[in-house]
Amino acid sequence: MLPSGYAVLDALPLSANGKLAADRLPPVEFAGVHVEPSTDRERALAAVWAEILGRPAAALSANDSFFSVGGNSLAAMKLVRLLQRDLGIELRLRDLYQNDTIIKLAQHVGAAEVAADREEGEL
Hints:
Elements: H1 40-53, H2 73-87, H3 93-98, H4 102-122
């Protein structure tokens, strides 16, 4: 696991007991590029992500990692369930961990659909 951002401080804010006062740390500004979802599938995935994360879909970049924008293992399980229920996307939890951005997940789902179509044609 690597940090997604760094901040340089002159000194760490400390409590009266000399412990780190995390609530007084300044917010870290990230200089990442915001990428809008560009396909219908990416927009549909972004809408489900937004619902799970409790954030507006417009605030999510298509290249943000699900886990760096607030997702955790419980949210990941909910996401897999909602994608199945709302979009009919069969996904394993492992697939989300390996394809943790909207762009990667959309590509993975597209490739899985092509493979399934190819298998149906062979039967």
